[in-house]
Amino acid sequence: MGKLKERIILKGIGASPGKVRGKVKIINFPEEIDEINKTGIIVASFLTPDFLTIIKRSPWVSGIITNKGGLTCHAAIVARELKIPYIAGTAVATKKLKENMIIIIDGEKGIAYA
Amino acid sequence: MPKKLDKFKKIKGIKEVQRYGLPLPETIFIFDFEKQEKELNNFLKDREYVAIRSDKENGLDFCPHNLRCPRDKAKKLIKDLISKGFAIILHEQNHIPLGKDQNKVSGNILILKKYMLIELMRGEPLILLNRDGKVDEHIKVDKNNLKEVKHFGERIIKEETLNKILKMVKPIPPYKIVEFTIAPDWLFFWQIRDDKTAKKLEG
Out of A25, A34, B148, B168, which residue is the most buried by the measure of CB atoms under 10 Å away? Predict the structure, then answer.
């Protein structure tokens, strides 16, 4: 991943460590997570408890990015429990990232690469 | 702490605030309405509003609450929640931040072995930070010298104010989240939660 520094597309708070590569899936409502049938990185404004309940039972969520949130929010604690890399507090993820875009996220550093 | 109380996550967290000698707003716990009615009446006396939270054994993260309940409606709500198996946490109401109060800052301090991670928001009850992700400022400090090593977001708290709080929570062991609100003339802690997953953030 040496050259990836040049292609940083988003920075936030590293809320759950781990690196993963996958397709972006923009989520607006909790039930949209149930419709996912391929592994992907979900991108949302934030993940309230309604979203988290569904994420816990979904086998397809490999990474998470949100506009809001931080390390101590329930969403971050759940992501760490489930060992899902998570970048919180990006402010602009839902605007900057596009559906089906392939990205890599580093949940420790809080950086997304395209 | 009696073994049974240990099963109530929030009540256990409030007891931990007392255990570490941190200031807590006036608070009582109600488990049995009939037996504790006199204690409840004494608490409600002379108060216009109270803050009612609830907790359940081996519980849920989210339990019913009314953070600004008029005194004349409090007993009915408490009786109803107890009949449904909840225990009641009753706080004095005037220190609960509600709305966008620019004079109050609420936040969480996550304690690690070498660092403390602080997340803050202006005013508002902490439920908005914990459940809805409202965070205005993130700060990482070295636990030894309390120097800032990382900062993200708006500056909403003065360094000396934060340092005063951090010195109070420094003795608390790692992997706990300490919840607090500070206003110009008071500082209160709400609860201390365990976060075993925080070990992953040691880096």
Answer: A25
Counted domains in chain A: 1
Tell me the pLDDT tens digit for each residue of A39-78. Answer: 999 999 999 988 999 999 999 999 999 999 999 999 999 9
Domain span at B51? 26-92
User: What is the domain-level CATH number for residue B78?
Assistant: 3.30.1490
The mean pLDDT of chain A is 93
Contacts of B135 in chain A (CB under 8 A): 68-70, 73, 89
CA distance B1 to A59: 40
What's B173's DSSP letter? Answer: P
| Beta carbons of A71 and B110 less than 8 Å apart | yes
Six-digit token string for A62: 């490999």
Q: What is chain A's Cα-based Rg?
A: 12
Q: Look up the ipTM and state it.
A: 0.89
- Could you tell me which chain A residue has the CA closest to the CA of B108? A72
